[in-house]
Each structure stands twice: as C-alpha cells, then as structure tokens.
Batch of 2 targets.
Target 1
Amino acid sequence: MKKIKEYGSLSGAVKDLFGESRYVEKRSYVSGGDINEACVLTLDDGSLVFMKSNAVSSLPNFRAEAAGLNEIRRTGAIGVPEVLGAGTDEGISFLLMEYIIGGRRVRSFWETFAAELAAMHSAEVSGTGEYGFFEDNWIGSRRQSNTPHSKWIPFFRDCRLAPQFNAAARYFSTEDVKRIEYLLSHLDRFLAEPERPSLVHGDLWSGNMITGNDGKGWLIDPAVYYGHPEIDIAMTELFGGFPPAFYEAYKETGMLQPGYEDRKELYDLYQLLNHLNMFGSGYLPGVKRIVKKYAG
Ligand code: ADP
C-alpha cells in the first residue's frame, strides 16, 4: 500500500511537493461536490493542483479517499488523479491531488471507458485476496465497513445491507422487518458468488467520472473495496445512467454474468438505503419496493 504523505500546513505541503520557493498564488473554487469544498490552486510558477478541504475531523475521510485513488491507480487500468498528499492547516483538513484538465472526448469515449473499467475490475487483487478492503471508508458521509470476508454474499450482507437496514430501523414496520430478515438470510437465492474479488469504484455515478485531457473518462471520489463488479454497473444505472454504448461495450468484455438484470436491484438497495439514511424518507418507497420484490 502506497504511503500517503501528510503535512501540518498547506504551505509546507506545497514547498515539499513542488520546491522550497513555491507558494499558492490563487485559489479558484470548483462546484459539483456533495460533501467537501473543492478548489484549484495555482502556484506562483503556474502549476495547478486540485485540493479538497473540510473540517479537521475529515482527515480520516481524506486518507481513505487517497487510499482508494491509489488502489485504482495501482491497477494502471483507467485514469485516476495522482494523490499528492493530505494534511491539516488552521482548522481545515485537505487532500491534494493532480488537477485533471478537461479535454474533448475521444470518439469512442464510452466504449473506451467501459473497456478500461472492465480492466480495472479484472486487475490483480492486492492484499489478502478477500472481499472488503484493508480499512473502512466512506460512502457519501456514511462510514462503510470493509472487514475482509472470504465470500462475496456474506460480505454484502454483513458489511453493506445489514448495517444500513439497522441504521434505518425506525422506518420499518414489523411486516417490513420480517421481509428484511428473510431477504438477508436468503441472499444466496438471488445473488451469485463471483469467481474472484474485483476492485470496484464503489460510488460510480456520472458525477464521479470526469473527462481528462486525453479525452477519456477518469474516476474520482471513490469508495473502493474488493467486491462484485456488477455493483459498479448497477450504480451507474441507478442515478441517471450512462449511454447504451457504455453497457454494450461493458457486456462485450464478458465481465457481466448472465442474470445481472435480476440481481441489479439488490445492489441498488445498498445505495438507496444509504440515501435513506443520509437524506431521509424520500428514498423509503424505493427501498420497500425492492425488499418486496425479492422477499414478497
Ligand atoms: P465531493 O467529495 O465533495 O463529492 P468531488 O470529489 O466529487 O467532491 O469533487 C467535486 C468536483 O470537483 C467534481 O464534480 C469534479 O468536477 C471536480 N474534481 C474532482 N477531482 C478533480 C480533479 N482531480 N481534477 C479536476 N477536477 C476535479
């Protein structure tokens, strides 16, 4: 695991990373993030650096984000910003990374993105070779457990669905609870064990994919772990969806197992529960519908 450099001040980080005489000349704030403040730093020599910042208490989140970006980068399969360092500075914590300068999309943008995502999904597994990750991380503002498991279905139950259902307990009637318990104890009827764990982005929607100056799709803001690649594909469909060319090209890689359509809403359930727990009851009907679909 690549060590993340940590600093006690932003100016110290800039000097260490770019040279003793370098300093931040300008900050331009960027919109689009859900959780953190984001800006592009322009250094006195014109270099550009991307910085995310938040309260000091968010330093562990930034460390986890950095570990996720590094894990994706380690595969060499797909564009992802290089992590430069993290740290704290006068009441804030920050994460510094390579600034991805946007470019014109290549003609086969979605086909290339699908092929590179599939290559990430099929990259060699690091660490223990189990489902999970070496540390927990965050999905939106909620912590997700990555305790290693030797099998996918128990991991998905114990580290994904069950903690979210528990956190949302107040929304459910006795009838709902019966269905949820049935679902959790019969997941193997609906899901399939993959051949082996795949590195997944973990929060793959259109807002977490940007176009680089190579014209290709780059991944940002991951919540990585070793899991089932279908969970990334299901999430892309959940919030808006990517164009058909993406799905056709991903299917062509052979990474999507037969029966995906029957499983995908169970994977959606995790994200919908997370939204229910973050944003409230607007997501309850979607959660209940899926629970009923599988646990009638
Ligand atoms: P948050 O953690 O608050 O959700 P994001 O990681 O999604 O923040 O970043 C906010 C926005 O900043 C993104 O929508 C994207 O447009 C832009 N962005 C993120 N990372 C980079 C980067 N390395 N280079 C250029 N722009 C970036």
Target 2
Amino acid sequence: MFKRVLIANRGEVAVRVIRACQELDIETVAVFSEGDRDALHSRLADQAVCIGPAPARDSYLNVANIISAAFITGAQAIHPGYGFLAENPNFAEICERVNIKFIGPTSQVIEKMGNKAEARKLMLESEVPVVPGTEGIISTEKDAINFAHNIGYPVIIKAAAGGGGRGMRIVQNDTELSQGLNTARSESEAAFGNGDVYVEKYIEEPRHVEVQILADEHGHVVHLGERDCSLQTSRHQKMLEESPCAALNPSLRNRVGEAAIRAAKAVGYTNAGTVEFLLGSRNEFFFMEMNTRIQVEHPVSEMVSGIDLVKEQIRVAAGERLGYRQRDVRLSGHAIECRITAEDPKKRFAPSVGKITKYHAPGGIGVRVDSHIFSGYVMPPYYDSLLAKVICHGHNRAEAIQRMQRSLHEMVIEGVKTTLSFHRSILSNAFFKKGEVYTNFIKRRMGEG
Ligand code: ADP
C-alpha cells in the first residue's frame, strides 16, 4: 500500500479522497492555489503545498507544479479526483514515466475513451449497443445529411473530444444541420483544441442511466449497479442522481450491467469507471460514453452497495485484488443525491459567489453530506459552483425521497444564491415522485428559465 498520496484537486472531492486515505492510514498531501488558502482540503491533509495562482490553468491544471509537489513531498501516488487533470491522458502518461502511480486507468485507456467517436467504434466491435450514428467523424456535410435522411430527424451533433455537456447541438432539418456542423466544429476547436464532430440519432425523452464499474489489475471486473442521472438542466448539468433506476427490472439491469462490463473489458479497463447509456422509452439502451474517473455522483452507488469506491480505487492502484465477485455484490435500498450548487435557478442557474455567512448541514439516520464549505467560507470565483452533495439512503425510493425532503428542510446555506429551494421543489413534484423522469424533465415539468 502507498505510504503517501497527493490529491491533485480541490473542493469536496479533495476532502472525499483525504477521508479515504486517512481510513487507510495513508499520509495525504493537498495542493492548493493562492485562491484556496483557507480551503478545507488543505487544512485536513497532513501537508499542503501551494501550486500557483488562483486561475486553474496556473494551479490545478499546472502539471509541472503538481509533479514537483509530489516529488518534494515524496508522494508515491496521485489521486486526480474528477475534472481538472482527471481525464487528461498526457498527465497520466507523465505520472507513468516518472514512476508516480496515477490512481485511475492507464493513459492509453484514457486516451481511447476520451475520443467519443473512437469509443463508439470500440463498443460496436465488442457488441455493446451504441446510439445509431455516423461511422466515425464527419468529413463532409453530405455524409451528415445522408445519415440524417436515413435515420430521420432530429439528430444530435457531438464533438468527438466533448465533455461536460459542451459541444452538442440538436438539429431538426438540413439547414440546421449544415449550420450546426460549422458552429459545432468551431466551438469544439475553441473549447477542446479538436474540431472533429460526429452525428447521432437524437433519442426522444430518454433516461440517462450509467453503470459504476470497478476493475482490478488482475482481470476482475464487477459493476455496482446503475445510477439514473436524468434530472439535468437544459445545459445537461446533472442536478439529482439516484440508484437504482426506477425503470429497470432485474433482467434489464443485468443486461445493462453486463454490457458495461463488456465495455470495460474491451479496453482493458482498470480502476473505477462509469459507462453511460441512454435508455429509450421501449427499454432499448445505447452506449453514450465512458468516464474514466470517479464521478460526482459516486456516493449513491456507495450507499446502496456498502462499498467505498475511493478506497477501492486506491487499493486497486496499489495492485490489490478486488476481494469479491459479481455474485457477492449486494445492492440494497435506494439512494438519492442532490447537488446543491451556488447558482440562481431564477437566472438560468447563473453562478453566484461570495461569503457563506451561515451553514448548517442536515444529519440523522441515512443522511450523508459531502462538502468543503463552512460558515465564513468565501467561495473563490474561479472554480465550479458545487457547495455540497446531500445523499440520502432509505429502504425504498419513497423513504429515500422523504428523508431527502426532511434533510433539505434542515439544511441552511446563507450568503449566496443556491439551488436548495429548487431541489426541494423537484422532490415534491408529483411526476418525480412517481419515478417518471427523463432528460428534459426540468425543462418540461419544472419550467426552467
Ligand atoms: P458530455 O460528455 O458532454 O456530458 P454526453 O455524451 O454524456 O456528453 O451527453 C450528455 C447528455 O446529453 C446526456 O445525459 C443526454 O441528456 C444528452 N444526450 C446525449 N446524446 C444524446 C442523444 N443521442 N439523444 C438524446 N440525448 C442525448
């Protein structure tokens, strides 16, 4: 096992990883930017190293400074969290070259899965169902139009290198398609340094269902069931996630789980990862992409499986074997996570920054809060707007919903605009309570904007 691990991240996920390390008796090294001097993660870690000015490109994305911090402190491994460098194959490769263990899959796997068009091809070869789409990237407008005519509008243009809901465009006809191709290409070039795009059938009112997998370096792969992440803003930002998905029966759950394991095996995947699918109204499911890192919403899988995913990531990276097989994984009850962010739901979720003047976290049976904020904390304007994740577990979905409603009423965050009241109204929505959710739910049922 590692003696010392550096956490190349900030915010709640850095705190989450530090907690796992402490329970494994591993010393922790936090890194922080000049904008994060008072941050909780640097206070909780055994050591903290400043890695540069507040803007992320100068600090949390500064590979040279992070690697130097690891050398200076004698860290044997780096946990990247999510975001920042977590899915950057160059960073993982540098770690491999300088003999610091990157806690995640190999740089080759990250590279393969990072290109969505490539990943689709690989999945097709492994008989994992994928959304009907163009074969690889689009070279001419004519190819895109032919595809759209064959499959029928609407179609969705996607950036091969896209992520975080960016670089996507839904189009209804030939004119929109040809205009969309140009804008998507230039947007993607600007955002990701890669203008490659491809086109997929747009699945109407789907659910976003993703499978958590865990793979050791000895060929064992298990899945920990699925998460339903259909509740998203119109910019595809997830707001609430739950496990299990109310629409899956045991046999469909097995099929989706097995497809995810096939996907992981096809690329020689190691460590924790997520295979994302779209689930259509007739229970047909299609591979969308694979995320080669721990996800924001991982706690819901932890709550139903009783498995600490971050500890497992660290153990697997240290070469340990998974101590169980698929049949040993027991999923019980229902878990829901609300991502409480500093955003103003009345202003299309525009970010809000400032000082948290008052903070009170909910508690009690079945309630978990993963957060880095405290009363008096000043939110730096440079990073994402996540304040706290509230995760509630119950015997069934109804109990998890009641527990979440109770928790959100207990929770107090003052000083910045938050999504707390918006989350409260999702929880009391009759359609949500019935489990009738899909990716346009917030727009259709909550009158977003
Ligand atoms: P990103 O990597 O940017 O998050 P994804 O490929 O994961 O992009 O897609 C994000 C969201 O966009 C999905 O959860 C879903 O709501 C929507 N989406 C993506 N592809 C399709 C599609 N073919 N049909 C309908 N909705 C889609």
